[in-house]
Fold this protein.
Amino acid sequence: MASILNLRPVAGSFSLGDHIYDVLREAILNMKVYEAETDLRLDERALSDALKISRTPVREALVRLEQDGFVEVRPRKGVFVLRKSLSEIMEMIIVWAALESMAARLVTEHATDGEIASLRDLAARYSSDDAKARIEEYSEANIAFHQRILELSRCTMLKTIADGLFLHMRAVRRKAMAEEDRSSRSVVEHMSIIEALESRDADRAAAQVRQHTMKLHDHVRDTWTDLDQPETKNAAG
């Protein structure tokens, strides 16, 4: 059975096009893409019925989503939300580590004390126990923390590239955060990053961020080995 995304009908007077693309992309980003039980197949008719619009703008949006790497069209099987391979995820995390570690270095040079303090405000909202007990909520807060570092770098191109990558990393981070007590360790590691930024130690800040992200890399590499196996449920169409 094809997956039905959590969608709201679109008002008939609303201009379609980019909006339909944004609605579908956001729904896909909120899917648990890397959970084994998640059905990744999308049904064009079901989507148009849920949105209460014709199939043409849905079809056009799906073409754009395929071009942007969010879905794939499998001949004679249908449209599927794209689940990255293990090697692709490894590469994405490595690139993310490089981008954010550079951003951390720039933060020590360009951010004000008040801006760096805003990172401490974000981190202080969750203790290790809170993060574990409110894992879904903390997962989003964790994403906001890392995006804030990119923002404070004041390097527009760096942030733009990272934002595009992070769209594909979001589901990876969300799943991994709930595994092997990573949420509790994340809280502690965030504070170490903040302390390095507050001390304006560019080398230490860059190293702390890189090490933090590469721990995600090592965790996924060692525990997500099932991604190397061929899909069965979703490949069956």
Strands lie at 41-42, 71-74, 78-81. The two ends are 8 Å apart (CA to CA).
